[in-house]
UniProtKB/TrEMBL annotation, chains A, B:
One of its GO terms (molecular function) is DNA-binding transcription factor activity. It comes from the Bacteria. This is TetR/AcrR family transcriptional regulator. Residues 25-44 bind DNA. Residues 2-62 form the HTH tetR-type domain. The keyword Protease does not apply. SUPFAM superfamilies: Homeodomain-like (SSF46689). PROSITE patterns: HTH_TETR_2 (PS50977). It holds the Pfam family TetR_C_28. Keywords: DNA-binding, Transcription, Transcription regulation. InterPro entries: Homeodomain-like_sf, HTH-type_TetR-like_transc_reg, HTH_TetR, TetR_CgmR_C. Gene3D superfamilies: Tetracycline Repressor, domain 2.
DNA sequence: TTCTATGTACCGTCTGGACGGTACAGCTCT
DNA sequence: AGAGCTGTACCGTCCAGACGGTACATAGAA
């Protein structure tokens, strides 16, 4: 069984994403994690400490995810776009933690920096497949656009999917030997 | 001078974007707008009404912005990408209101719908310049990626700008007569 | 081997403060 | 006279954080 600490962080993420920061009170997080409020405060001595714990997890997962992108069988582009799209993120994955962190980017110093690190890690990983700086950035932005959709909660259009995007992008990237 | 009602909405947006939803209390909004709390409640009888007012403004501005995209001298693509990028949105523009609305997308019903409308309006406007469904969606996603960057507060890279993106996209869109 | 001590991992309650919202009396333009 | 406010006072609720206590495991001393 996972540690209570991890379960608290999981519950915090879930509440932030599904019901917003206002609902992520210490009581609610503790209840969702199956611990008491006192137990939560044992692991995270304040709400700030809880947020800091989430950012720690974000940084850790960003590094792991960048590595996963580089070693993915389908390649970084495919991996990035699929995990960014609505429904593409796995529990325990970076996407979930990223979306949760976005919800607490409220004047809280350090959040912007942590998110910027994720941005930089992702771009660096994409550049192992696309050397052209503009094109790699462009692909990242497409993925980020999918992220935004996931954040807002808008599903993908019925008639269009990530596959269509990938097909187009491959056509633009591959043939001229421009890589 | 703008009406008190508009100033309240402006202040609400500013607080939401710069200091997050938690700081956007009725007292804080009233103070930032230069009205009393009673004055604020005269225009918006509750916090829910204030949020609803913001969504009204969002829908109105989305329609106006889609029209501006269609009639922009530089064309929809140029307009959309430039206004989405960090620093590209003007006060009184759609981008600011959109980013503010994103911050209150917490279980509040209706926010997702309003944001989805903006999404649809933007895509429809882009399709006046790009008929290919996949490409128009791709361009929208690039713009949305820039939106996300604006939301997070990460500035553009030093060595890359919207111009580079536009140049590449034009090259992909224009020459083969694929439109 | 038993007694005492220390550290870890929690639980449940309480309090002070902030916030949303109400009520109302009064002022100032038009 | 009335619309559009200001300013003050107040109430009920919710929440962060503090606090005191519990259960248990390990360890060293007698």
């Amino acid at each position: 069984m996972s540690s209570a600490r991890d379960r608290v962080l999981d519950a915090y993420e879930t509440l932030l994403i599904e019901r917003g920061p206002a609902s992520a009170t210490l009581d609610a997080v503790a209840a969702a994690a199956g611990v008491s409020k006192g137990g939560l405060l044992y692991h995270f001595s304040s709400k700030d400490a809880l947020a800091a714990g989430l950012l720690d997890r974000l940084r850790r997962r960003s590094a792991a995810d960048a590595e996963a992108m580089r070693t993915a069988a389908e390649g970084p582009i495919d991996y990035y776009l699929r995990t960014s799209a609505p429904g593409g993120g796995s529990p325990g994955g970076l996407t979930r933690t990223y979306l949760a962190a976005l919800r607490i980017a409220d004047g809280r110093p350090g959040v912007h920096d942590a998110l910027a690190v994720v941005d930089a890690d992702g771009l660096a990983a994409l550049r192992t497949e696309i050397t052209d700086p503009v094109l790699s950035w462009l692909v990242q932005l497409v993925g980020d656009g999918l992220y935004l959709r996931t954040l807002v909660g808008t599903p993908l259009p019925d008639d269009l999917g990530v596959d269509d995007l990938l097909e187009r992008l491959r056509a633009l990237l591959g043939p001229p030997g421009s890589a």
